[in-house]
Design brief:
21 strands, alpha+beta, about 525 residues
């Protein structure tokens, strides 16, 4: 989540980062619409530090984090290394987020509860709601971060109590982590097999294609299934509160803080543009309201996504260890998002992943331009529409600073974006000669089945341009976006990043090592 969405920085044993947080756009649920209408980001409260924001923060996990009381106890954000500057939850580039899900084993009912994050040593703007949990409830937590690396820090044994996983063997994932996710998914999958829980069908999008899931090669990027869909309220003095009807009524002049994520891109931006509906569950903090969530996205994708199915590849930057593939880390991440673990890295081939991205991604982006080019960009500093945002996102993922697909496939990127003088993507061109119509991975990621990427019928090289003029404008339907001006730079520019993925397929040589060990910081 650094400049912005794809700039990566590597910390020792950790990782870089890409996303900046998104603006909220479109979701046909009244409470979410109310939040969307006023969604802006809180400016950093860093004073002279604003030019050099500390991207590495820690989150202190409260005691007994899976209990009702633990869920309602705010997490505390603090700098991992104070010498690098403070960390503030009100700073959009440092904000951390927690998403919780609760399943009742007796009924299969899933509910969502999003714990609150505050700055260390501060009090929330409003006390979090203490949720009422069903008997024998199985609770899990997922974490997201708008900076580079988020380290979970224990408090009186909280990491052990919560079965928390921040990475493996001293190497953290980066922005993502989880607590008790495997147990939650085991319970949910048992409920599905018993007929107690039924993930909804994906539905049909406005383009006539199946609505995308988080495992659809038309949506995924270099590091799929990351971050969460949690939103917080932030007051003028920088304190935070849960998004509830009571808090919104009682607090004036609040702003919303959101986590830029693949899950938010799907459930908020893309579903809204394509006429699709995300799976939602009751919000335990806000009775009568429903929320989308990472675990719902993953369960639905596992049940409904047709082949080829995208799952974490060995070259995903979040599962690299010192920029090298790590079998244990791949499996640790997959366990946290309900994906099948593997016995060797060949079963997580980045080359196969790239082939499917190439076959399916550009064609769907181009097909959906008619619906996405009039929608506001998730990040106006990066692209001037949802269409150009998706195009530049593909370019960044396909290139040498992403999965390095061009080198792995010996095929140049079929997508090129044009930026204006401020580096904002304003148009995209597609070279149909560099794509094909068939994905070639099955549900397990092996090269067995053919997919159904859709290239243009005439094979022509289309040049969609969201705004051919020198001064791109933002659609008037989204009042949150600011028009970008400046001279047009006609050179296609992918997002830059200092991290280079090796040209060889990291799915080639298994990394051996001990069983997965949760990585923690000071404390437990």
């Amino acid at each position: 989540m650094h400049r912005r969405y794809k700039l990566k920085n590597v910390a020792p044993g950790g990782r870089r980062r890409r996303f900046s947080p998104f603006m909220l756009i479109g979701l046909s649920v009244p409470v979410v619409l109310a939040i969307i209408a006023s969604a802006v980001f809180v400016l950093p409260r860093l004073g002279s530090h604003a030019a050099a924001v500390n991207g590495d923060c820690s989150l202190i996990v409260p005691a007994r984090p899976l209990s009702a009381r633990g869920l309602a106890t705010p997490y505390q954000l603090v700098a991992t290394n104070a010498d690098n500057g403070p960390c503030n939850e009100a700073n959009k580039m440092q904000a951390a987020f927690v998403q919780g899900a609760v399943i009742d084993p007796a009924t299969g009912q899933i509910s969502i509860y999003n714990p609150l994050v505050v700055d260390q040593g501060t009090r929330p703007a409003a006390a979090p709601v203490v949720p009422k949990l069903p008997a024998n409830a199985v609770v899990a937590l997922w974490f997201g971060f708008n900076g580079n690396n988020l380290t979970l820090r224990g408090n009186h044994g909280s990491l052990r109590q919560g079965n928390c996983v921040n990475g493996v063997n001293g190497s953290i994932f980066g922005q993502f982590s989880y607590c008790n996710a495997p147990a939650f998914f085991r319970t949910a999958n048992r409920a599905i097999r018993a007929g107690l829980l039924q993930p909804p069908a994906l539905g049909t999008a406005k383009d006539g294609q199946p609505c995308p899931s988080v495992r659809d090669f038309s949506l995924v990027d270099m590091d799929q299934s990351d971050n969460v869909i949690t939103t917080y309220l932030v007051t003028a003095d920088g304190r935070t509160a849960q998004v509830t009807a009571a808090n919104m009524a009682a607090m004036l002049n609040t702003q919303t803080q959101v986590n830029g994520s693949d899950n938010r891109l799907l459930a908020v931006a893309l579903d809204g543009a394509l006429g699709c509906t995300p799976w939602m569950a009751p919000d335990l903090a806000n009775p009568g309201k429903m929320l989308p969530a990472l675990p719902l996205n993953e369960l639905q994708a596992a049940a409904q996504q047709a082949a080829p199915v995208a799952v974490i590849p060995a070259g995903d930057p979040m599962v690299l260890n010192n920029n090298q593939p790590d079998l244990n880390k791949v499996n640790a991440y997959r366990r946290g998002v309900d994906q099948q673990t593997i016995g060797n890295l060949d079963a997580a081939s980045t080359t196969t992943y790239c082939q499917n991205m190439l076959a399916i991604g550009p064609a769907r982006i181009q097909l959906d331009m008619q619906f996405t080019q009039a929608k506001g960009s998730p990040d106006p500093a990066l692209a001037n529409s949802l269409f150009t945002f998706l195009a530049q996102r593909f370019v960044a993922s396909y290139g040498p600073n992403g999965l390095n697909c061009a080198a792995l496939l010996n095929t140049p990127d079929p997508v090129a974006v044009t930026t204006d003088g401020n580096g904002v993507a304003i148009s995209a061109t597609f070279n149909a000669g560099n794509t094909n119509n068939n994905g070639n991975a099955d549900a397990d990621g092996d090269a067995d089945d053919n997919g159904n990427g859709n290239a243009d019928a005439d094979g022509a090289n289309n040049t969609p341009n969201n705004n051919p003029g020198a001064t791109p404008t933002v659609p008037a339907t989204d009042p949150n976006l600011v028009p970008t001006t400046g001279a047009t730079d006609t050179t296609p520019v992918p997002a830059a990043s200092p991290t280079v993925t090796p040209a060889t397929d990291p799915g080639g040589t298994p990394t051996t090592g001990p069983a997965v060990t949760p990585t923690v910081a000071a404390g437990n």
